[in-house]
Amino acid sequence: MKTLIGFLLALASLVVVLAVVEWERTELTSPGPLHGAHRVVDELQGSAGCANCHSDAGRDLASACVVCHEAIGEQLDATRGLHGQLEAGLVRDCGHCHIEHVGDEVSLVGDHAFERAGIEERDAYDHAH
After folding, report:
1. Residues 86, 117: contact at Cβ < 8 Å?
2. pLDDT (tens digit, 9 = 90+) per residue, 95-129?
3. Per-residue DSSP letters for 40-64?
4. Measured at the alpha carbon of residue 126, what is the angle toward residues 123 and 129, in degrees to the nearest 5?
């Protein structure tokens, strides 16, 4: 009897673990709400929307971002403007400066973004690039 109870508990545990794994695989949970600027974009909604930015096809985040943010892509290609002049480690890591999945709690282009880009005072930056 004791062996049967142990077997049934192990089986029940396995079923629960497999159910959770399947749910995670099919539901694609988000780490938090999109910022308001992205929350209104239809192509970024639901599980399919996740793949538009976070593709498993070897594409980095910057490649996904410049699909919509063409002017930033032009800066990167021409190595001009704020984005085009970032150090190599930051150029392909948009999330380093632009914090997503926190809803509207943090500005996508706040003072933190300029500081991380090496600009101590946001007001001192010449936006006329």
Report:
1. yes
2. 888 888 888 888 888 888 888 788 888 888 877 75
3. T-GGGSHHHHHHHHS-SSS--HHHH
4. 145
